[in-house]
Write a structure and sequence with these properties.
Elements: H1 3-21, H2 28-35, H3 41-59, H4 70-82, H5 88-108
Helix pairs in contact: 1-2, 1-3, 1-4, 3-4
């Protein structure tokens, strides 16, 4: 994986956190902190690792290689972020809609 790919993956993770979880903040670490409680702790740890590697590649002149296995970590994180579980709010709304349909059918009978 090239350094530029690390930046692109980091941006993709930031985008997922923002659009699917409502993350806010300036960078990946701060966006993650804003939604950390909504995510699995193992996933949080991997995202922090990715953010740290990205920051080192961008800001530390002595770091110029991507660690072995990094691509797999990035792929795993993006896959897990893409599969958002149904929230309590979504489930509640779906149940309410089902109840309304049942009531409407019962009323028409």
């Amino acid at each position: 994986m090239k350094q530029w790919d690390v930046i692109k993956v980091s941006k993709a993770i930031e985008s997922q956190l923002k659009s699917k979880y409502g993350a806010s903040g300036k960078g990946l670490h701060s966006k993650l902190s804003s939604v950390e409680s909504k995510l699995d702790p193992k996933l949080v740890k991997k995202i922090r690792y990715i953010a740290t590697i990205r920051n080192k590649l961008v800001h530390d002149e002595s770091v110029n290689k991507v660690p072995h296995g990094f691509r797999g970590d990035c792929t795993e994180v993006l896959a897990k972020l893409g599969k958002k579980k149904l929230t309590f709010k979504v489930v509640s709304i779906l149940l309410l809609l089902i109840l309304l349909v049942i009531c409407a059918i019962w009323y028409l009978i």
